[in-house]
Amino acid sequence: MVTEEEIEHVSKLIKIDIDDHKEYVEKVRAMIDYFDVLDSAGVESEEISMPEISISNLRADEHIPFDDKLIEKLNHYKGTYVRAPKMSS
Amino acid sequence: MTMIGLEIHCQLTNLNSKLFCSCKANYREFEINENICPVCMGLPGSLPRLNQEAVKKATIIAMALNCSTPEKIAFFRKNYFYPDSPKNFQITQLNIYGDTSVGGSGSIMVGDKKIRITRIQLEEDPGRLIYEGSSSKNQITLVDYNRAGTPLVEIVTEPDFETPKEVRDFLNILSDILTNLGVADPSLEGAMRADANVSIEGGKKVEIKNIGSFHDLEKAAHFEITRQESLHSRDIEIIQETRHWDDKRKITVSSRSKEEELDYRYFLEGDIPWISMDPEIHTKLQSEMPESISSKKERYVSKYNIPAQVADVLSSDKYYSDLFEESHTESNAKEVANIITTDLMGLVDTREKREASKFTATHLKELADSIQSGKIARNSSKNALHEILKTGKDLSTVIKELDLGNVSDESELSEIITQVISEESQAVEQTKSNPQTINYLVGKVMQKTKGKADPALTLDLLKKQIGI
Amino acid sequence: MNLKISALDYVQEVKTGNISAEDFVAKTIERIQSVDSTLNAFLSVNEKSVDQARGIDKKIKSGEKVGDCFGMPISIKDNMCIKDSKTTCASKMLEDFIAPYDATVITKLKQQDAIFVGKVNMDEFAMGLTTEFSAFGPSKNPWNTDCVPGGSSGGSAVSVSALECVASLGSDTGGSVRNPASFCSTVGYKPTYGLISRYGLISYANSIEQIGPLARTVKDTAFMLNLIAGIDPNDNTTIDNKNEDYLTGIESGIEGKKIGIIKEMMGEGIDPAVLSATKDAISKLESLGAICEEISLDMVKYSVAAYYTITATEAGSNLARYDNLRYGYDFPLEGYEFNSYISKARRNFGPEVTRRMIIGGFVPSAGHAGKYFLKALKVKSKLTKEINDAFKKFDLLVAPTVPILPFKIGEKIDDPVSLFLVDINTVTANLTGKPAISVPYANSNGLPIGIQLMADSMNDKLLLQAAYALEQTVSLPEVPL
Fold first, then answer.
1. Which CATH number fits domain A1-40: 1.10.3470, 3.20.20, 1.10.20, 1.25.40?
2. Catalytic: C44?
3. Contact assessment for residue A64 and residue B22, using Cβ atoms and an 8 Å cutoff
4. For site-directed labelling of C310, which of A33, B297, C5, C459 has its Cα 20 to 30 A away?
5. Contacts of C128 (CB under 8 A, 6+ apart)
6. d(Cα B437, Cα B431) in Å, to the nearest integer?
7. Mind listing the pLDDT tens digit for each residue in C171-194?
8. Whole-number average pLDDT of chain B
9. Domain extent at residue C66
């Protein structure tokens, strides 16, 4: 069961300022409640599988500079630093 | 009982490229934001490309620290928001589906004490933040991403340290090991950082972050122990928290911990498959590993009869052991070791001095051989060394230019001895009756030759001329 | 000049000089100008298309080597980076983002002299099934403009189906290429996971998504696959397909092939027209020599829940980078503190993306991961086991692509769970990494129905052969627009 407080908590976690948490509760609750069906899947003993590659297929350790002056192509900065707001602590 | 554990981050500065892209691993020579690409900037659509050599170097570190190394390694995402982290998650390693980080369950000896290594993991360094603006109203954070993506090895220890000094000793040993392996240069600014966790009397653990140097780490640990003991003695509860080291005031301060940020929502990094470490790779890495410090020390002592303390210095500093290895022979080993640890050491005690030094292994061999053969007196060899270090000229040139050569020419020496004998007739008479006093006359010859007379030859010729 | 030409025929016509690339591209642009104000498939049109086509004609005339596309006009879903072009993912968060590099698929197509005639509409950040969640307005189904074209690669399907381009590249995370292909009566292909490089594809759920071509014929799809598939050093998850040629032998037929009919994909809630079309397709497959038999994949029942749990978690993480500091849209940071700035900046995500990210923050979080996220991963594992077992017995699997007909715009937008279930037949291929294709098969009162075929991993060639064989059994009406 998802509560408004939990949605408020998660929205802080994912850093989205939601005006009205109530608005999202209904739909998010419906979606998450639907996921309860996973409980009947009987998969407790399953192992999680992942694709594999051999270490020899990994990238060689070479310095290859990116050919463009990348920082000039991104916006939101003056000069060469990227600017960010002040940190709170 | 005090318990201190460490979390050490070491940059693999000897690699050519970053962990997940081909930008340079050692970012220090670049202008702001010049060592970046779509991958390390986390641009939309970019994907990480794991550096094969980084995995190998991390595995070598794990082996050197006696860790177990798994057959397959995996990477995870640690999700949190911070301006120095361009993707707002860090690709790192964890052991939540079995042992999947590069190394686990190892140990290092610090003197007689065993310090256990919990695990070793590969991860990426974030960028660097600079704060601009004085008043809190217009303060801006400036971010340089040159460092973002630099390969890091995180080494976590069990809380086996009992004193801040043990911590300091451990870090020095670890530093030497990493340098000896050729994987990193811990002396580079910011290349090796450590956080500590401290608890006393089996109580709550307090984490201390933001420690700038090993020197500060010792101080911070010391302060924190004192702080906790003081609370404990007054029956005040020690809160489990994260504190940061305030370098100005030399104290640890409680960090404002934000509960939400502690939930990192770890999950497997879908852009990097599990890496299978073929058993042949393990064997190959093991065989290619440079000789360990302790093995070198043992060899220097047993094979060349070098005193233990000298062997200690030689083996633990790669710069010295490299010089020794290249310049020594069976016969001059002890002399080479001696030159390094008495005369050379004081002249190359910083990396700038080492980079500027023109004194090579060839020079060293020549110098040691020349001292042994009597071509140059030990006193004069110090001056020669100085000069060679500055100019790089070969020994014979320097001896000539500075007139440092031993006077070992028989006729030349005989003439001087004849002179001394004629000037010191009383001493000569004394020596005839009491041969022990010949040293006075040797001293006079030395004076005349400014210490360059070959001592053995001088004694010989003197005896002959006096007739004893 | 007929715009409804297949890619292969286009190439032939240009090669032999019957048509010029410039004329065809110019006509294509005219077509876009004429119908797109109704259809809203394009987010941006490449003004230089005709000039580029003229350049290709010059190359052809001078005898210079020309790439295999010969100036073919292709549309690209707006979540793939084209250097120096706007790439928005149909989101206000990226409305000013200009990509500084090319996606690998773009590099490959550029080398083959394709012309990118524009970037097409999608659900914001590929999250959706109808293209209604685009921040720039929904696209319309050219077969019935009151209906959704499907999603999230709606713009791709619309542009191909409405003759605004010859082929398109979309992306498929849970059906996002196959679903709109089915709704718009085009071919839509999702390859084996790892066959096509994702470098330059803006990530939504990176462990299961793939770029996929949409085209008018199965052979065209194979042609596109040849151009863009293959191992890429820029993407560690790509696999070596040893330069397989997907076009040769495509007419081999399916004599003797065993085809499994997935029971759980034909169940409750299926539209009778869709069911009847599927049964008809199965009998056609049998008449071509295949042996069709029912098979049960029990985990399909849980596949949608597993899919949305996993993708929300990955999306929450993949979209964390959009904090508007390094790129994004104009929003000055003076006066703000870090957390308050980025929380405010990220309000520019649309409501569906926000919902998914909330879910994505919830399901893997410390208190809930065991119940949701980890369980979903286990369902994924078990489903993969089940389908691998099925492929020991069968060469191919069949089911309708979407169990329902294209529905009206706005009909399901407020009912998220009902919308989820539109995906029930398609997410399995993504969760298990298997290749899947939607072949346009029927038309019910003007509304298109597609049939889906799946093959085992790396059996893309076989899959295309079966799709081609099925395609040849139908003759479909012209698009009404």
1. 1.10.20
2. no
3. yes
4. C459
5. C151, C152, C352, C419
6. 5
7. 999 999 999 999 999 999 999 999
8. 90
9. 7-252+424-471
Q: Is residue C148 one of the residues assigned to a domain?
A: yes
C59 catalytically annotated: no
Contact (Cβ atoms closer than 8 angstroms) between residue C169 and residue C212: yes
How close C172 gets to chain B, by Cα (Å)? 15
| Six-digit token string for B320 | 């010295």
> Which contacts of C452-455 are long-range, i.e. CB under 8 A and separated by 24 or more positions?
C452/C178, C452/C182, C452/C398, C452/C399, C452/C400, C452/C401, C452/C425, C452/C426, C453/C259, C453/C396, C453/C397, C453/C398, C454/C396, C454/C397, C454/C398, C454/C428, C454/C429, C455/C391, C455/C395, C455/C396, C455/C397
Nearest to C358 among A11, A30, A73 (CB): A11
| Crossing angle (nearest 10°) for helices C300-318 and C351-362 | 100
In-domain check, residue C375:
no
Residue A2 and residue A28 in contact, taking contact as beta carbons nearer than 8 Å: yes
Q: What is the rounded CA–CA span in Å between residue B16 and residue B155?
A: 21
The whole-angstrom separation of Cα C304 and Cα C306 is: 5
| Residue C37 bears catalytic tag | no
Tokens of B15: 């690699």
User: What average pLDDT does the segment B208-230 reach?
Assistant: 89
The residue in chain A having the minimum alpha-carbon distance to the alpha carbon of residue C367 is A6
Is residue C394, in this structure, part of any structural domain at all? no
pTM of the predicted structure, to 2 decimals = 0.90
Contact criterion met (CB < 8 Å) for A50 and B273 = yes
Catalytic residue among C91, C139, C152, C171: C152
Q: Which two tokens stand for residue B386?
A: 């100085």
What is the reported pLDDT for C460? Answer: 97
pLDDT of C40 > 70? The answer is yes
Of B353, B355, B341, B379, nearest in space to B364 by CA: B341
DSSP secondary structure code for residue A86 in this structure: B
Residue with the two structure tokens 């921040």: C135
Which of C176, C185, C438, C457 is the catalytic position?
C176
Between chain A and chain C, how many beta carbons pairs sit less than 8 Å apart? Answer: 153
CB contact under 8 A, C99 and B89: no
Q: For position B46, what pLDDT does the model report?
A: 97
Rounded to whole angstroms, the Cα distance separating B411 from B423 reads: 18
Residue B7 and residue B194 in contact, taking contact as beta carbons nearer than 8 Å: yes
Nearest to B274 by CA among C296, C207, C78: C207
